[in-house]
Design goal:
Low-confidence stretches: 57-70
Order of helices and strands: HHEEEEEEEEEEEEEEEEEEEEEEEEEEEE
Helix content: 10-25%
Strand order of the largest sheet: 1-28-27-26
Strand content: over 45%
Mean pLDDT: 89
Number of strands: 28
Distance between the termini: 33 Å
Amino acid sequence: MESQCNKLRKEYEELKALKDEFVLELEQISKTGDLKRGKELKAILEQSKNALKEKIWLLQWEKFDRYCLKQVERKNHYKVIETLEGHNGWVRTLQVLSDGRIVSGIVSGSDDHTIKTWDKDPSGLYQVTETLKGHKDSVYALQVLPDGRIVSGCYDGTIKIWKKDPHGHYQVTETLEGHNSWVNTLQVLPDGRIVSGSYDGTIKIWKKDSSGLYQVIETLEGHNSWVNTLQVLPDGRIVSGSGDHTIKIWEQDSSDHYQVTETLEGHRGSVDTLQVLPDGRIVSGSYDQTIKIWEKDSSGHYQNTETLEGHFGAVMTLQVLPDGRIVSGSDDDTIKIWEKDSSGLYQVTETLEGHTNSVLTLQVLPDGRIVSGSSDHTIKIWDGK
């Protein structure tokens, strides 16, 4: 973190020097009338300023993610404290809203074609603050960029970027088209690039071009079926889970193109959800009703070290609590919390019942509360003691 701060300080000093050069150039332009040079320098200055601003957002986001979430009190005996009703379809995806500094609410996507933002009212209860309409079909995936913009993936194959206007209301600023089928999953790389996985079997990397608009810079092909789920490892490698029952690890080669470096086999059904534990182990949940833990062996290759059985339906979603416990949501309508016992093996310590249909999506709030979305059309907030 310290070295990153030093790099940013250096870039800030370089930006100030560039600004000083721009001011001097303007004085010269007023004498020579060379407007072309002035415009060129202004464009360079603006581009450098925006790049630095984005890096600062990323640093703030990383600090929030790595440190804040771990410094919370452990909670047990989770109970439903709120049920949020507002969607008219399955709640397929949830994210925690943040502006890079503080958590400001929850965002949800649904089969009712809408995205809803939720925030606490003066009484401390969550209410819908905005309903975002723009997609023409089910919203399957959400991510939140470091600067607070929302990214959504839809059954219609499109990805939309939502940004607050001057009045504080979200508006679509871009619609990204490139997939040939619905977008199942989204992630954000450490440098701000967007990664999307689709039913068309591909993974796409999206990056801003010189005009500030996202373009596909790479399409990753390797799975023999749809891509259900994505995660990003701490070193920037991409992990994908597929309907072909496999998990693939993707790493950039010397020419900066992603290649499959490992294929993890062990599940007997589609890999529907992935998470990464604080120590870098991978956790996968599958249609085969199991959860698998994958850990590097002495040669650096991932091996399945443990298989967790307890659900009686497909494991649809996974999250990790700040203390490292695993949370899983299933087609059996329940949420389970898994913790290592004295022998170092994971056991179910709590089963949370409250939804009347499949638990499709989970998030963990900074204070350790759990948020769940279901095909019963509701979102539930769970808190412990």
